[in-house]
Amino acid sequence: MSATTHERPAEPGRTPGGRTASGRFSGGLRRLPGVRLWGRPDVAAPVLAFVATFSAYLIAWIAKDERPFGDKPKGLNDLANQYVPFHLNLWDLAHGDAAGDFLFNWRSGFGTQFLSDYHTYLGNPFSLLAILVPRSSVDIVVFLVAPLTMGLAAAMMTVYLKRLSPGAWWMRATLGASYGLCGWALSDASYIPMWMWGLVSLPMLGIAMEWCLEGRRWVSSALLVAVAWMGNYYTGMMATLAAAILLLIRMATTETNWPQRLRAALRAGTAVGVGVMLTMPLLLPSYLSSKAAQPTQAGTFSPERTEVFIAGMLPSTHLWGGRPRLYIASLGLILALAFVVNRAIPLRTRLVWTGSIIVVAASFQWAPTQYVWHGLAVPNGNPYREAFVFSGLLVVVAWMCLTNKPRLLPMAGALGVLVLVTVLVRNADDFGKYTWWAVLGGGAISLGALSLVVLANRQDHPRSRRVLMGLAAVAMVGIVVGESAMSAAVADTRRARERWAKPVATSGANLDAKRAALRAVDGWPRYRTDPGPQYFAYNEPLRSGGEGPEYYSSYATKTTAEALDSLGYPSGAFGRTLFGNENPVTDAIFSIGARVSPEAAAPGRFETRRYEVPPLVTVRPEGPVAGGTAPADTVWGRHEQALGGAVYTVPEVKVTGGETNASFSGTGPWRLKPRPGKTVMTFTAQCTPGSGLFWYSPAMGTKVTGVDGRSAVSGGGSKSNRGGVLDLGLVPQSGQVKLTVAPSSGDEIPRYPVGCLDFGKLRSTVAGLRATAATHVSAGGHTFEATLPKGSRGTAVVGVMAVDGWVCSQQGGSEREPGKRDGRIAIALKPGTDRIACTFTPPGLRPGLAAAGVGLIALLAVPGTVWWRNRRDTEVVGEPSPSTAEVAGE
Q: Is 633 a domain residue?
């Protein structure tokens, strides 16, 4: 029998020493003293794996004194910026308190899709637990998604390992926990709930591949593929590639012929195809949303140096930046190394598995194969996001070694190799002392536990075996839990050195106070309420309420990013992080009728302000704005065009001080010879006294100080960030504007950086817009309707971004895609129109539903065909033979 087959050796063939007749270890006793979970080891193994994994993470969490076990915040990076806000919006949706539905989100980006965000950020099934707790505790559920998913992944791995080779349940549980607590989970993905589902998907799809090899449960296999891709398509794709590798390995190491292999491959391929088709209502809209998203700067893959890559395989390592974290606990590493020389395992099996693991590791270091792992794209961030695949393969070979007569000397040699490798890479960048603790301390305890297993299997007396196995079990589980808890704590501690990793609060009295203030002035859809500055973290409207431009997502559309950038809104992450901007003109353009801001003199308290603005739907005449003096290619001219009124004076400026480019011709932007922190310039201009003073230099990071000492900072100056329009107060009675500009980064200032706003003209323009605007606006989850004054002519402009997916109609007319005006929805009105209605459907949803329908038919066709054949065979067998008279037709 091959060492990798899933068939159990017959019990009568077991020898007194604990080995099966085939030479495989039984792992000692099936039951440890006092440990019998419902009398079912098949239940006990996954439960122990789950508990051990969850406990290790929890121990590290408690040790770090983080919420809810302490006072320190746990909102690391995107936990606070994306995942908690999106989970809060999920809570609002479930409790009827959201502005929008599962298709559309009215709160963010002046209107954007939500289905793709749901699939990407909320697809992990454990995310649904957020709707079961009070809103103030949603962040705790988000933090728990990681250990819950890691525990489920560990449990699922124990089920998969059993199909590869029989052995003691507690040993499977221990190695299952080693997988759930691998370096990728602890160091890379523990603060990214959506990715964690890939950890579950790998062993789950491995089970599906085993069914395909056995020629059964095709429907279940397809459903497991669907569950993997619905949880997160990104890591689901990586797990599917890993499952294909596992299938190829199993076909190469089991006693099967080529026809059987081809049938298994066909079953696997069709199961994957149908499973993916079932996820198309989520997958296709997400794909199209990513194509429509604001592009980020294309990166290039640079493989790590060999010593750094190998260092990432050592336990308890967390190297600086986006380095690979490939390790599992020292117990698994020792067994994986010993697998290579374990003669109880057939040579072909050892060669195939060892070669496959080496090839997989090498594929992480080669750009073309890295692109394949990441869906033919360069990852934005850590380039080793598929590292859990390598760790999973290590755990598999560790289990095969453990269940196939491991001898003490090879395992001691494996520990020696581990120590030698640690010595050789000790000078790698950012190598830490905790790796020594894990290799020497954890390795020694692991080897001691394995020695107890060897000793127990040599005992003839049952009681002696039970005692030794009990001690080995405690030592094995204990070292995996302890070592992994230390690894988790080390990962978070060392990660905190990086600027982006400083945790922020995700709940508390301040957040509750701001939410209450927003609700007090909420007027949607009569007007929008802007939540003000990013007081807590990004995606503030999802966290606190309101309807503003703030939006941080991989699906921030190019349409929205370009439109808001042209109107002077700040942004980050190459336009995928959109920020708010307090400006009376853009407030009027987007119907922002209220705003909430923190009180500077009273931390934790918020002030609310109300504005007179046009409603969400206004009616505009065709053509350019009459009487405008602002140059059309400036932010001030674009403000006037979008508003529909001339409200700015744009003065010529004079520059003194600093170092301007000698080739400046007077028509292009002001350019500096950049000397960050040292170049200081003075800009002077003449404006109408009492008008609003605004500054705009999006490509430069700079502090600008106005005439009354009021200053503001533009956040531009880098490739990824753009600054917004700055409010510098009022022009003094002298009309003389003098601004001190101290750049910190960047080298370009627009030709007309100063705009002076005439508040009287703005009020007059707003009053004119209100007089001809919609008399009533209503908004549903992904629809809106507006009633217009009788005789309305021109173009209805809606303060909603014209993202793909909108169709609009006028009474008596058919639905059609609306036009665009300054990035917003624009509908050319037919004579006599007094009502418009628009509906949003995520692009790709309808064809995705059709594809899922085809997949469902294919899925049901298999059991349906079997049922029909069985029914037909039963009828044929049970039908009496026709009589002679019947044959004769009588």
A: no
